[in-house]
Amino acid sequence: MGRKRIRDIRNEELIEATIVAVHKRGYSVVTMAEIAQEAGASAASINYYFGSKEGLMEATMRHLLRKLRIAMIEGYGAAQTPKERLYAVMDANFSDALFTVPQCSIWMQFWANAPYSPRLARLHRINRTRVRSHVRAELANILPAERVETARSALQCYMDGVWLEAAQSESAVNAETARQAAHQVVDLTLS
Amino acid sequence: MGRKRIRDIRNEELIEATIVAVHKRGYSVVTMAEIAQEAGASAASINYYFGSKEGLMEATMRHLLRKLRIAMIEGYGAAQTPKERLYAVMDANFSDALFTVPQCSIWMQFWANAPYSPRLARLHRINRTRVRSHVRAELANILPAERVETARSALQCYMDGVWLEAAQSESAVNAETARQAAHQVVDLTLS
DNA sequence: AAGAAACCTGAACGATGATTCAAAAATAAG
DNA sequence: CTTATTTTTGAATCATCGTTCAGGTTTCTT
Lengths: 191, 191
Description:
mainly alpha, Tetracycline Repressor, domain 2, 9 helices, elongated, DNA-binding
């Protein structure tokens, strides 16, 4: 068991260091040496664990996607009505665990770089499709069919835009405030 | 006069090539050689005109910002009411000249990289501030004061999100459709 | 036409950074 | 305490790319 443990601990540490380092320096500019320094390790050890820089980035993105999935499932469980489930989707995106400047920042970095990396693109596409079908399914229970697609697009664009703005923010962001604003947007969209 | 002309022509050509090349390969990955090839020139000549890669990128961003400014001024002139001027702001963002996949794509690239380049960051900040105050000013004429800021944020996030989505699109995007959707969003936000 | 100015490029330079590797250090097993 | 296994890293390798520069070509001026 101890065997498995150390590997997991290192993985976790290196991924956290990656988030911080990428936020500080930018996805494309950050070097293995910088990430290693952030984690108190050496560049060579990162390759030992992740095989390559791209492997590290993919693992980091998986880490964030897992967080999002968990937040989503959690909120979905409690929700009863379609509208509450819509709220839950928004709340997952703006949950305390996810909606921080470094994470929004790195998310944007992945966004911008996904089209040029097949491995990132694949993860990105899967996530996007999943969120889309969730939102669409709930909207279909509330709005007439011809309004669903417009509303879905508006809500998803709004979510993306909020993340983008958060990524640029120079001070800390407030997740609770973001959730309240998102609820208002949902309400408007459904009116 | 002929002196000035050639320089302008080359600048234009190189910037267009930059947009295409960055869209194809990504801001951080694209090389001077690739951009040069796209323009049918040599990497050295780009340095002759723009001094450095960063200079080229800055010029390209200025080019896009100028386009946006022009589209905005144009629409503003015709608009009479505050609501029409709001439409005009949205329409500028989704004008035929700007709302294409390569341009949204490169815009997103600049977005993601601006925080790490003082020269890009400066341009980016100026533009963002300008759009924000325009939207805020128009909303202040329509909505009660306490709703202005929420509405402004919602509209701006929406615009950003639409660009982001367009940047990821694999097929061509339709500017007219985007404008119509944007008008609907404005209407909902004001309701 | 001849000289000057602008324009262009191939080749060389210099710096950087991901990855590999051999060997050391730490840890576990017997 | 040995031996085996896992973990770690400094140094070497290898490749890439932005930039410079010297010299050539074209365009303009007179």
